[in-house]
Design brief:
This protein is an all-alpha fold. The protein is built from eleven helices and two strands, in the order H-E-H-E-H-H-H-H-H-H-H-H-H. A two-stranded antiparallel ribbon has the order 1-2.
């Protein structure tokens, strides 16, 4: 098992643990003094240390200010992620908890940073086409993984998951929950069929990356054409 799957499995386990320990909505406890994530053992029980300073609060989770948005391409520039976050009633808080867990489980790899790193390679003009193509493929895989984790976090934070530990509630698996939401499936397939559209630098930010221009557009058209006829 590679570091990507290992990290993903760790993130999933932590999300489930948060849901079981703290219920709905999924939230991460922070120490209001140190602004660090508080472990369950230090935030529960009879000890005064940690428990008095811990609170559940929204996390910035990489959300950029308006000034930062004009400087560099980030995860929030990927429209697909913006859409799925707002598709669910609990999407915003679920993604904030997810991002906090991803940052905490980034000893081997940070899933969000992997997406941005592959996007960076894909947009480099001097890189060989085969390297760009490989970066686009791997980047799309990590983007889909992050996309599915957002959906999974929203699932854990919904009533559908209650049946696994609340008596009398019906059990709904994540697979069945997804099948009830065809729009999520459609978004997922858009990553596989047209990955280049999610990794292209926006026109508004093209001035921050001189030398790209038509080269990137030509490469995207070439990769998309190959995906259609292969």
């Amino acid at each position: 098992m590679g570091r990507g799957r290992t990290t993903t499995g760790t993130v999933i386990a932590c999300l489930v643990k948060l849901r079981i320990n703290y219920g709905r909505p999924i939230k991460v406890l922070y120490d209001v003094l140190t602004h660090e994530i508080v472990d369950e053992d230090s935030s529960s029980g009879g000890e005064e240390t940690g428990s008095n300073n811990a609170e559940a609060r929204p996390r910035n989770s990489g959300r950029r200010t308006e000034e930062e948005q004009g400087r560099a391409f980030g995860m929030d520039d990927i429209l697909l992620l913006w859409k799925i976050t707002r598709l669910f009633d609990n999407g915003v808080e679920s993604r904030e908890a997810l991002d906090a867990v991803i940052d905490r489980c980034s000893a081997l790899q940070n899933i969000r940073e992997a997406v941005l790193q592959y996007r960076k390679v894909f947009n480099q003009q001097h890189v060989e086409p085969r390297v760009r193509s490989a970066a686009l493929k791997r980047g799309a895989e990590y983007l889909e993984r992050y996309f599915r984790l957002i959906a999974f976090a929203a699932y854990l934070g919904s009533k559908a998951f209650d049946g696994f530990f609340v008596e009398g509630e019906s059990k709904v698996t994540f697979k069945n929950w997804l099948h009830q939401r065809p729009e999520v499936q459609a978004m997922k397939w858009s990553i596989r069929l047209r990955p280049g559209r999610f990794f292209t630098i926006p026109v508004s930010q093209m001035s921050h990356y001189p030398g790209l221009g038509n080269c990137i557009i030509f490469f995207i058209l070439r990769v998309t054409t190959l995906n259609i006829f292969m």
